[in-house]
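Table 4 source record.
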Amino acid sequence: MEGRLYTFLGSLGESLGYGAHDQVWLILSHLALTVAIVFLVARMATKKIQLVPTGTQNVMETYLQGVVGIGTDSMGKENAKIYMPLIATLGLVIFVANMMGVVPGFESVTGNINFTLSLALIVFVYYNYIGIKKNGFINYFAHFMGPVKVLAPLMFPIEIISHISRIISLSFRLFGSVKGDDMFLMVLLMLVPWIAPLPGFFLLTAFGFLQAFIFMILTYVYIAGSVMMAEEDH
C-alpha cells in the first residue's frame, strides 16, 4: 500500500513536469499548483465566514494574527496591519512551495533561483516605492547620506550597495536553504528505506516553516525602515 502511494505521487509529479527537460515548464507547472493551493485555502477560509471561526477560517485567522504579531515589534501594530496582506501572501506562497518539495515526486519552486529572485525583487521595489511615497523622493534618498553631512559622499554609496545586497540576501537565503533540503531528502531516500527518513521529513517541514518566517520578518523590517524614517531619526 505504501509503495503504491509513493508510485502514485511520483507519477503525478512527473505529469506536472518533474524530470522533464524543459525547466520552464517544470517551474511554471509547480508554480501554478502552488498558487492553486493558496487560492483553495483562501477560498475555504472565506467561503462561510462565522463570528466564531472554525476549521480553515480559524487556522487562517490565527495565521494572520501571527503575521501582525511578527510586524508589531518592528513598526507597531497599526502599521503591521496595513502591510499584512502582502507579508501574509508571501509567507503563505513560500510555505506551500516549501512543503511541496517535501512530497516525493514534486519539486519546490522556491528551490529555483529565478523564483526566489522574483520574490526578492518584488519586496525591493515595493519597500522603496512605499518609502518614496511616504517621505518624498528627495527626503527618502537624503536619508541614505547619514546624519553627518561630511560623511555623505561615503555613506550614500554604502547605503545603495547595502540595499541592493538585500535582493541577493533574500533570494539566495531562501533558494540555498530549500535547494539544500531537496538534495538532502533525495540522498536520504536513496540510502535508507521509506520509514527511516520520517524524522528527516519532519525536519524539512520545520525548515520550510522557518524560511517562510524569516522572509516575512525581513520584509517587515525593510518596509519599516523605509516608511518610518522620521521616527528613526527622532
